[in-house]
Structure formats: C-alpha cells, structure tokens
Amino acid sequence: MGKDGGPRFLHKEIFQRVNFLLQAANLVLKADPNNVELCRHYIATMRLVAEKHVIRLHPHIKRSFCKKCNVVLLPGHTSMVRSRSKSEPHTVVTCKLCGTMKRFMWRKSHQLWIDKQEAWCDYNQQDKKSIKLK
C-alpha cells in the first residue's frame, strides 16, 4: 500500500520499457520490412528484460512475436496466417523466416486464463487475509 492508501504498481518502469521495446519493434518492421535484424534485437532485449526482472508477459504479447527467431509476426510480411478446421477449428500462424508454426483455437468456450474472471485477484481481500494470518 502506498501513502495515499491505494495499492502500489510494482515494476512500473520495467513494464514501460517492455512496452516501448515492443512498440519500437513493430514500428521498425512496419516502416521497413527488410530491417528484420533491428526488430530481432528489440524483441530479444524485451524478452531478456522481462526474464531478468521476473515479470510475466501478457499472452497477447507472446502471440505477437516468434519465439524461435524473435521477430514480430506481421501477416503478409513476416508471417502467413491460415485457417484450418480438421479436427478442431483453429488458426495457424507460420513464421516466414524460420518456419515455426503457432496454432490458436476458435472454440467459443475457449478463453485464455488471463481473460477469465477468476484469474484476477482483489488486493483488498488479499490484504485482509494477510492481516488475519498474522
């Protein structure tokens, strides 16, 4: 809790740095699709900063770049997007540079854990529980 009574936002500068590096990588690749090496450097640095400070990247951020070659996946430039529906309907995103494939489900009931209500916690309830435990 901060002085004003509200919960503190931990690692604010780290999240800002990660956000800046992701935006810079997107901007560099959109401005010049041939400038892949600078984009790779930005994404690799972003992942290194997040790993060093032990913060979790949002799943939507993780889906936006290739985990193997560290390039932002822009449809038509660095990735190819196809829809498949053999056994389960899903989208296949293939990196054009390294060939890595990602599959994303289409089911109506499919929802990322972070998007579910039970994934979010209430700081006030946590503080009350920690006070009772002491």
TrEMBL record:
Keyword Translocase: no
Entry GO MF terms: endonuclease activity; hydrolase activity; metal ion binding
GO cellular component: nucleolar ribonuclease P complex
Keywords assigned: Cytoplasm, Endonuclease, Hydrolase, Metal-binding, Nuclease, tRNA processing, Zinc
Organism in which the protein naturally occurs: Elysia chlorotica (Eastern emerald elysia)
Family: Belongs to the eukaryotic/archaeal RNase P protein component 4 family.
UniProt-recorded name of the protein: Uncharacterized protein
One GO term of the biological process aspect: tRNA 5'-leader removal
UniProt superkingdom: Eukaryota
InterPro entries xrefs: RNP4, Rpr2/Snm1/Rpp21
